[in-house]
Structure formats: C-alpha cells, structure tokens
Design brief:
Elements lengths: L7 E8 L4 E6 L7 E11 L2 E9 L5 E8 L4 E4 L9 E10 L2 E11 L2 E9 L4 E4 L8 E10 L2 E9 L5 E8 L4 E3 L8 E11 L2 E9 L7 E7 L4 E3 L11 E11 L2 E10 L2 E10 L2 E4 L8 E10 L2 E9 L5 E8 L4 E5 L7 E8 L5 E8 L14
Antiparallel strand pairs: 1-2, 1-28, 3-4, 4-5, 5-6, 7-8, 8-9, 9-10, 11-12, 12-13, 13-14, 15-16, 16-17, 17-18, 19-20, 20-21, 21-22, 23-24, 24-25, 25-26, 27-28
Length: 371
C-alpha cells in the first residue's frame, strides 16, 4: 500500500561506493503531496521511477521520472483521469523498455489494475486482466520484454485478500493461479533470477488468528509454493516483509518490519547455503525497512524509515555484507520528515527514491554519508 503525505517533495537518493547523496526533486505546481514508490536502473547512469502525486482535491495522479545520469525529468505516464491512481512498481530491462504496474479506484472502495510500457521515449497503456475484482499489483519483475511477473493482492468484497499473480508474455497480461491459500494474504514484492525462479514476499494472517506472519512464496515457472519459515518470535504480533532481492536461486535477502509492544523494528530473512533464516538487524526504535536491492550476494542495500515518538520520519539505510546488517540514518537538511520507499543497486550503483516533507519549496540538496 502507498501512503501519501501532505506538503511533500520527492527525494532521489544516489548511493555511490564511498558516499550517499540525496537530491530532492522539485514538486510540481499545485501538487501538495508527491511520492516515488519504486525505481529501476538497468544501467549505472539511467533510471526510471514511478509513483503518485496527490493534488489539493485529494485525487492521486500517476507520475514517472527518468534519470539520465545528471538530472531527473518528469515523464508523462497514462492515467485513468478524474480518479485516484498510482503506479506502485516498475521494472526496466533497458533504457528503451520498461513495464510499470499499479492500481486505480474503479468503483467506490474497489480497485483495479493498470499497466504501462516504456519504449525509450514515451509510455503507453497496456490492458490488464478485467475479471479480477479488487486487484492491486504491488511489484513487477521483468527478465525480458516478453517475460514479466507481477504480484500483489486481490480482494473479494466482503471476503478476504488473496495472492495475485499476473504474467506478461510480450503480447498481453494474464492472471495465473497461485493456488489456494488459507487466511488473508498481502503480497508486497517479487524478485526473479530466471524463468524458473521467482520469489514473492509479504504477510499472511492465518484463519482465526490475530497474528500477522511473514510470507514467502517461490515459483518454479509454473506454480507457487510457500516456504517453511523459522518460528516467529512470540514478542511480535505482526511481521510484514516488503522487499526482496535475489542474486541466484540460492541467495536472497528479504526485509520488512516487525511490530511488538515496543513499536516497530526492522526485520530480515535471508536465503543462503543454510536455507532460509532470520538475519538480525541492529535494534533501532521505529525502524522500518521497505525495500532492498542486491548487486551481489555480499552487497545489498535496504532503505526505509525511522519514526520517532513525535511521528517525525527519518530515512534509514541498511547495508548487508553477506553476514551482517549495518544500519544508519540519513539526515536531510531542511526536511521535517522524510522516508525512502524503493532502491535499486543492480547496476552496481545504488539509487533510491521516496518523499520528504518541508514547509516551503527548496533547492536541490546533496548529503554525503561516509561508509
């Protein structure tokens, strides 16, 4: 789910080998709230980001921005028009082809899917399956222009949330069965390393249980199978995985947030030679890891937010070296609140996007952080 904040401007974060630089993007005229939810960087000097901008009438409009190695530029992206819509995820196989997915308010509380493709110069709408009621794709991963997997949740009115899976074959999107799952399912992110290996993460609430547990499903290209995960610490009443990145069929890193009596704490589960296991994240009150990207199995960067008792948000950056997490916060001068929502390190250079809150407009801002 995308959370919008008022009076915000978009922040683009660039993490180089020895430093991290933050560059706020100027807010559009008459747009009180903007949020970039995801980005994809097929090369070290080109990225596409997507998200939504909420106007003064509380309608959210889809937005996209492209980074050419020097600056970010607004790019028009298809919108249903007159109703709220947002693109939640984007995946690019090159600077000349991307796929973005999201959702819009179809009727009352119902939502429906939207998708668009980028051809190197402009976006075009792509039809999505119409028979899924309440469908909301949250993540997409493309291996090529003819192979994309999108996951999320779909909801029956008066019913419960189910695992949504859609496949793109180069010509059309098709919904594919994920199998019957008991209880509520809220799937957030997907990572694919080949045609026979995709990993989706999220959370599930078993029937007749108030506890929200982490959920990981693996696809072999034709079916999805839930992963047996380590027992959940009884001190937590909710664990939600919101990001995953795999570098091979035997190396994955998933991140998210655990909720307990003391509030939010960052949470991680990794796949390595010993199987799936919890990877301890240094304690920090209010830490929420929202996304992760791995350049290699020993170099991953996760981003998120730390919320203090006064409800002030500070961006969080976490580094994984294959065995240990190191967490740091990012201070943005002049910002009263900020968060990072998406990150991409696959090209070897890490970049992340999100939002920040300021009382007035501001110029571009760079913040360098030592390793």
């Amino acid at each position: 789910m995308v959370h919008m904040r008022t009076s915000t401007t978009v922040v683009a974060i660039v993490a180089a080998a020895a430093a991290l630089f933050a560059t706020p993007l100027p807010a559009r005229a008459l747009t009180p709230s903007e949020l970039l939810t995801d980005l994809s960087c097929p090369t070290s000097n080109w990225c596409m980001a997507v998200g939504g901008a909420t106007d003064a009438t509380a309608i959210t409009h889809p937005i996209s921005r492209v980074f050419d190695g020097a600056s970010w530029t607004d790019i028009a992206i298809p919108s249903p028009g007159g109703i709220s819509a947002v693109y939640s995820s984007v995946s690019c196989v090159s600077a000349s082809w991307c796929m973005a997915v999201g959702s819009f308010n179809a009727s009352g509380p119902d939502v429906a899917t939207i998708a668009a493709t980028w051809n190197g110069s402009s976006w075009s709408s792509v039809a999505t399956p119409k028979r899924i009621v309440g469908a909301s794709p949250s993540s997409v991963a493309c291996l090529s222009t003819t192979n994309c997997t999108a996951i999320g949740s779909w909801f029956y009115r008066g019913g419960s949330n189910h695992f949504l899976v859609m496949r793109w074959d180069g010509a059309a999107w098709r919904s594919t069965p994920a199998g019957h799952r008991r209880g509520e399912m809220f799937m957030s992110h997907v990572s694919c390393v080949g045609t026979t290996m995709c990993v989706a993460v999220g959370a599930t609430t078993p029937p007749n249980s108030p506890i929200e547990k982490p959920r990981i499903e693996i696809s072999n290209g034709s079916s999805w199978t839930p992963v047996r995960l380590p027992a959940v610490d009884p001190a937590y009443f909710a664990i939600d995985l919101t990001g995953v990145s795999c570098t091979s069929s035997s190396r994955c890193v998933a991140v998210g947030t655990a909720s307990g009596p003391g509030g939010f704490v960052a949470y991680s589960i990794v796949l390595d030679s010993s199987g799936w296991h919890v990877a301890s994240v240094p304690a920090g009150a209010g830490d929420q890891l929202l996304d992760v990207s791995c350049a290699t199995s020993t170099r991953c960067v996760a981003v998120g937010v730390q919320v203090d008792p006064g409800n002030i948000s500070t961006p969080v950056v976490a580094d994984w070296d294959g065995t240990t997490w190191t967490v740091r916060t990012l201070s943005i001068a002049g910002a009263t609140s900020a968060s990072l929502q998406g990150v991409d390190c696959t090209s070897g250079v890490c970049r992340a996007v999100g939002t920040q809150t300021e009382g007035t407009a501001h110029p571009a801002l760079e913040v360098a952080l030592p390793d």
